[in-house]
Amino acid sequence: MPQATARSGGRIRVELSDARQMRAVAHPTRLALIGLLRREGPLTATQAGARLDESSGSMSFHLRQLAKYGLVEETGEGAGRQKPWRATAQFTSWSAAPHDPVLAEATAQFSRVIAARYAALTQAWIDRQPYESDAWKEAAQFGDTFLWLTPEELTRLGEQLTALLEPYDSRLTDDAERPEGSRLVSWLHLAFPLAES
What we know:
The chain contains 7 helices and 5 strands.
């Protein structure tokens, strides 16, 4: 079972390292549930179900599955379906290059589900954009850049971007840290080599 661990800057993450874990988490409802708990803090199965348009029974099942793999836990308060659950970490990581073929396939499937979620979030922004303020329309980032990089340079660039984002991490869990007018922003970062021609 993955354990929550801290890394530089105090970021708490859960690392998935087993094919069963990857397959269990590679479910759109479970990913949405993890995200909801990370954004909104402890919620009961009933509260989570209302926000995700799912039954409380369905939420209870998914919460138990996620708890089995260390991604959520009960807070120790309440009883039955009125027990609040919380995410065990704000970030999830996994190996991009597993050597075990079974884990490699599970990782690929998990990555496909994540990519589909990114695409859905992007499409929702495009659909919602006409109704947003000019300030948010202009602040939003949408585009790409081509770079000639070595694997080491791409790794270093990723580390530099993570370091730039870390000062904002405390706002994920502490409302008092959020400035007036701030909103939850999805910062998607994708960087990969193109197929060789």
